[in-house]
Amino acid sequence: DAGVTQSPTHLIKTRGQHVTLRCSPISGHKSVSWYQQVLGQGPQFIFQYYEKEERGRGNFPDRFSARQFPNYSSELNVNALLLGDSALYLCASSNIWSFQETQYFGPGTRLLVL
Amino acid sequence: SQKIEQNSEALNIQEGKTATLTCNYTNYSPAYLQWYRQDPGRGPVFLLLIRENEKEKRKERLKVTFDTTLKQSLFHITASQPADSATYLCALDRGGSYIPTFGRGTSLIVHP
Fold it and tell me: For testing the chain B interface, which of A37, A99, A109 should be mutated: the one with the most B CBs within 10 Å?
């Protein structure tokens, strides 16, 4: 079975632009979480979606938004990009909405904002 | 907000020895604590989960302990191998609401 997939793998944008990152969870998984990982730091939680509803939100500005589709894939959108948004964006899927459930991470999308 | 402290300095050990990594947290006691392995440029890989009412969890060469009094979790790798070299992250969640917090990770280097 395929693991969590993310696209694109790499992306270069300029300040003020908008970006959309995509994630496909493991087949059968209904929960998707998004994380931002800056170099040298641990992943920082952005959003969690389960059954197309937002179940958790981290401390990120409103420029960050996400949604989950009927097939459980998800998009993360970031508006008005800042230099500080440069990071590895990770998507994780799990079977249910609970931190006691194993999370499976994708390879990430590396975003560079110039 | 919850803060997690993991040693920022890399841990260097010889092959065959036991590696012990530390995760300290402040504020609330988490309901669940997870440990992950992350290789450069890749997403984290789940290793073990321990619940607040569990003192210890084992999986093959891995062992995790959870001391809610000390607000600390220890992660042990016995008979370490060079292939165990990676960054190890701890993550915790209060439970009830899904807002997990990750530490910055500790780099482990196992020398042959």
Answer: A99
Please identify every stretch of chain A with a pLDDT value under 50, giving residue numbers as ranges: none
What whole-number distance in Å separates Cα of residue B45 and Cα of residue B48?
A: 10
Q: If you count them, how many residues does chain A have?
A: 114
A-to-B residue pairs, Cβ atoms closer than 8 angstroms? 62
Q: Please, how many CA atoms are within 13 Å of residue A19, restricted to the half-sphere of its CB?
A: 25
Residue B95 pLDDT grade (very low, low, confident, very high; cuts 50, 70, 90): low
> Mean pLDDT, to the nearest integer, of B37-59?
93
Q: Residue B106 is encoded by which pair of tokens?
A: 């500790």
Task: Report the distance separating Cα A70 and Cα B9, nearest Å.
Answer: 44
The pair of three-digit structure tokens given for residue A53, joined into one six-digit string: 């509803």
pLDDT at B8 > cutoff 90? no
B73 has a pLDDT exceeding 80:
yes
B7 vs A66, higher pLDDT: A66
Listed residue (A32, A91, A56, A51) closest to B97, CA to CA: A56
**Could you give the CA distance from residue B88 to residue B90 in angstroms, rounded to a whole number?**
7
Closest by Cβ to B32, choosing from A41, A99, A108: A99
Q: Which of B32, B98, B104 comes nearest A42 by C-beta?
A: B104
Q: What is the pLDDT of residue B27?
A: 77
φ and ψ at B84, to 5 degrees? -80, -5
- Which residues of A, range 53-112, sit inside 8 Å of B by Cβ? 55-59, 90, 92, 97-100, 102-108
